[in-house]
Amino acid sequence: MSRTAVMEERRANLSLRGLHKRYGSLHVLDGIHLDVGHQEIITVLGPSGCGKTTLLRIVNGLIPYDEGEVVFRSERVAAPRPEMAMVFQHFGLFPWKRLYQNIGYGLRIQGRPPEEIDRLVRRYIGLVGLDGFENHYPSELSGGMQQRAGLARALATQAAVLLLDEPFGAVDALTRELLQEELLRIIDVEPKSMIFITHSIDEALLVGDRVVVMSPRPGRIRFELETGFGRGREIEAIRASDRFQAMRHYLWEALRHPDSDPGPVPDGVSLRMEVKP
Ligand SMILES: Nc1ncnc2c1ncn2[C@@H]1O[C@H](COP(=O)(O)OP(=O)(O)OP(=O)(O)O)[C@@H](O)[C@H]1O
Ligand SMILES: [Mg+2]
After folding, report:
1. pTM for this structure?
2. Which end of the chain has less neighbouring CB within 10 Å, N or C?
3. How sure is the predictor about 11, in pLDDT bands with cuts at 50, 70 and 90?
């Protein structure tokens, strides 16, 4: 690969620049700056109500913002784009559509030919372990299965960027770990850029290349940590590492004290403080 091509690969393909969002008099986002590199996974931690879902909806072009901009591959984002797919906090499945139709929804919107839709829908239903449930309605699936379905629907669109809003928030701890492993396995094969919102420190560290920590509302980015675990990561090996434990402790303390400086980072961990506009 040429030097230019390498630089092109590393270039941020999604940039949030000085985003502000207000709902009437409620100031929700207060100057968010974030660059998401090509195939980079960003996990976001922050207190409830700090504006995480709002942020994702803005990036996905679903709601307007007041100041700043969202730039994807040098173009300003103003409406939903086929290169981005969202996994919603509360699944967002259509209750009146069967699983098969739910997963194919984005592909039909994209106007793909029926054979291709069928191939992709079956592939992703299989990848998330829902074979045999094609004709079930969402109400006939467990919470974990609905989360898998939401993930499959986003993956099926072949989007280069996935926006995941607590995608595994509503399942038991064991299922959650299985889903984390499945997601990592899928994106080892089909790499993507991701913004992944979670309330779990462990999940943020296991899944993310970078963990971004937000302040209470109005949401700002307090700091970012590079996890440094690389691709092809093994969850159990990471969990057992000193680095994981040190970062976990650091994040735990930082989230417990949302209004104070998080203090010195553990040895070998790279920290970036808030980026001022
Ligand atoms: N459509 C809306 N109209 C008015 N206020 C809203 C709207 N959507 C969200 N808010 C408010 O904006 C703030 C941020 O909401 P948001 O859903 O982005 O938070 P969050 O960080 O995702 O929280 P959680 O972790 O609980 O999911 C909250 O105070 C919420 O009440
Ligand atoms: Mg939310």
Report:
1. 0.91
2. N
3. low
CA distance 58 to 52: 10
CB within 8 Å of 144: residues ≥ 6 apart:
170, 171, 172, 175, 179
Of residues 163, 112, 162, 170, the one with CA closest to residue 141: 170
Give the tens place of pLDDT for each residue, 43-61.
999 999 999 999 999 999 9
- Kindly give the residue spans of alpha helices, DSSP state H, lying in the chain: 3-10, 52-59, 99-109, 114-127, 143-156, 173-189, 201-207, 235-240, 242-256
Please state the atom number of ligand 1 nearest to the C-alpha of residue 51: 18
List Cα–Cα distances, 30 to 21, 114, 147, 218, 256, in angstroms.
Answer: 7, 44, 30, 5, 21
pLDDT at residue 277 is higher than 50: no
Q: What are phi and psi of 219, to 5 degrees?
A: -65, 125
Give the C-alpha separation, 266 to 246, whole Å: 6
Rounded average pLDDT over 4-22? 75
Closest C-alpha to ligand 1, atom 8: 54
What is the distance, to the nearest Å, from the Cα of residue 101 to the centroid of all Cα atoms in its chain? 23
Ligand 1 near 23 CB (within 6 A):
yes
Which protein residue has the closest C-alpha to ligand 1 atom 1? Answer: 23
Domain ranges of the chain: 11-83+159-273
Q: Which CATH class is domain 11-83+159-273?
A: alpha beta
- Cα–Cα distance, 226 to 208 (Å, whole number): 8
For the CA of 25, the nearest ligand:
1
Nearest ligand 1 atom, CA 166: 27
